[in-house]
Each structure stands twice: as structure tokens, then as C-alpha cells.
Amino acid sequence: MKDKVVVTGINVISALGLSISETWKNLLEGKNGVKKISLFDPVGLETQIAAELPEGFDEYSKKYIKKRMAKQMTRVTQMNTACVKACIEENEIDFDYFDKDRCAVILGILSTGNSSLEKVINPKNSILKGMNNAVAAWISIEYGFQGPSYTVATACASSAYAIANAYDLISRGNADLVIVGGSDSIINPEEISGFNSLFALSTNNEEPSKASRPFSRDRDGFVIGEGAGILILESEKSALKRKAKIYAEIAGYALVSEAYNIMSPSTDGVGMAKTMEKAMKNSGVEKSEINYINAHGTSTILNDLYESKAIKTVFGDHAKNIAISSTKSMLGHTIAAAGAIETAITVQSVYDSKVHPTINLINSDPELDLDYVPNKSRELDISCAISNSFGFGGHNSSIVIKKY
Known about the structure:
By secondary structure, the protein is of the alpha/beta class. The protein has helices at about 20-30, 55-60, 65-70, 75-90, 115-120, 125-130, 135-145, 160-170, 190-195, 235-240, 270-285, 300-315, 330, 340-350; strands at about 5-15, 35, 50, 105-110, 150, 175-185, 225-235, 250-255, 290-295, 325, 355, 380, 385-390, 395-400.
């Protein structure tokens, strides 16, 4: 019999706050984190907006990262480290209680962000800063974990895949606790220029607060965000034994490769539908139990259309009863960190019985006629939810979260 996997800690660092509580409050208020880029001068780029962390991040990170360590880390690594340490502190987790051989770290890290911008700020330690495995290694070293420690890279689904890996490790009895999540920042000239060449980004530089508009008729591409999301996953047995606070249960997941196109999702959301179907089957959950979906919701033409079609295909008439919202409407697309940030937000939704809105949904697309929780948050008793992540290359993930 599988061990039940529960969530005993969550944290998020985002454009709307340097903690889960601050981010969550601002999400519920429908605030927007997208502004003109300040990390460098974006003049000459087609896209000059992004959802950057608040100005206080540098000072905030100093509380958790020693000066010498910080010099060996990129901004992405610092985000992850600070997010983890704040989560451990907030949830008062004492690792002396645990067998360190049965504690692990699995992170979704596409890149450490060792970009041209990073090299201008601090050109030293380029080898250590460029090692994407180092992001997980720093955490294992900090807490003396001697279980598995590694990173997963599956584009925008990276940290969702990490959560799936962590679930397996615990449910099969091979770990008691896993620190899981991810961090990312691609707010630099070369990566913004690269995504512009793919026509993937919004170019609404005049109105940054309205640039990310998932499910809207006038959506014109996603907005880059940066941040980190962390969950502490633990076996139910371990959590109950130490009388830990339990936020929710991770009931299961599905990982699917669409094997279709390096950039576009499969036509009409066939791959997305398969992912949600498998996730519910693997979790032992009926379709009628799902009453909230945290959508991938990128604000691109095809993603929003196909994800909506996939939800209709999977749920039929019940699709109209499901509240759906896009965190990316406020935090932008945090790439490798998105799966973890959005799963953490979904866990918070389940725990608090509230869902945040999809903002900027003023001009409705007639093809998209589901309940996207437009512009205003809502009280909702969530028995079971899904968090979707769909990455370039057809890397799909759906994670099922249940009220505990």
C-alpha cells in the first residue's frame, strides 16, 4: 500500500511578494506584478516589460544567505535558497527529528540564469554559478540531507515534474520528506530577444498591467516573470508523528509527452486532455470531485484555446461547474518555477477555501466560455483541484491536490 503524501510547508517568492502570505494576499486582491523592466535597460527590445521581484529582494536574501555563499550563486540560486530557508523557518521544521538518509531535494531548474546580465554584476565563480545541480546541492549541504539531490529540466513543466518525482519517492516508501520546487529568471536581453523571435511574448509595453491577459480575446503572448516556489512534501505517517501542520494532500499526478511539436501544443488540446485524464485515474479521483483548476493559462493564443478545449473534452458538462484561474495573469510566466509556484498557490487555495481571479479578463473570447474567475477572487470550498503545467517540447504535467 502506498504512503499518503501530504504538504507540510509552502512558500513563494514572486513579483507580488517575498513570502507566500504576501503573494497570496495580493493575488486575492487581483494585483498585478508586471512593470517596465528595471534589472537592465531594455531599450531596443520588442518586449520591455516583465514581472520582476520587489526591489527589497537583495536585502531580504541577505537574511538567509551568507555573503561568501551569495557570490557563488546566481540570482536564480539565491531565490531558491532564500525561499527554502524561509519556508523551513516559517513552518518550524526541525531536521534533527529526521533520518537524513531519508530526506531529499528535487528541484525544477531549467537554467541557473548565468546570463550576460549576471556576468556583468559578478563575473567570478562562473563554473559554480552555472551548475544547475548546485541549486539542489546548496540545500542538501545546508541541512545535511543524504538522500537523493538533483534537478529536473522539462521546460515550463520542470518544477511540476520535480513534484511528481518527489511524490513517487515518498509514496513508494523511499523517503520521509522531500524539499521540492524550483526557481527561474530569464529577465535578460538574450532570452527576451530569443522569445521575441518566436513571437511568444506580449509587446504591450504601453500598458504593462494589462499585458498578461489569459483567456481574453485580445491576448498577444505571455509575460516573463521570475521567482521561486517551494513545497515540503512528507509522508502522512511522518507528519502525524511529529504533529505537523498539514496544508493538503498530493493525491497523484500524470506526466505525458505529446510527441507533437517542439513549441506548439497538440491540436485541440488532445495531449492536455490525456494528461488530466491520467492524473485523475492515477489519483483515484472522480471527475465530479474536481471543482478548481489552476490553469497553465499563459495568455498565448493556442495554449488558452487548447487548454479550454481539453477541459471540456475531459469533464463534459461538468466543465461549466469548475472554477479556473490563471496565476500567470498577475505573476507572469515564471518558466521552470511556474509548476511549483502554481501548485503551492493551489495548495493555499484548497487550504483557505478561496480562489484568486484571472485578471484583465474584460474582452471575452467567444470560443472560451468556461468559468475563469474573472477579475475578482472567490470563496470556494475546494474538495479536489488540479494544477496544470505544459512545457515547450510537449512536456505535460497535471498534479491533483485534495483537501486534507
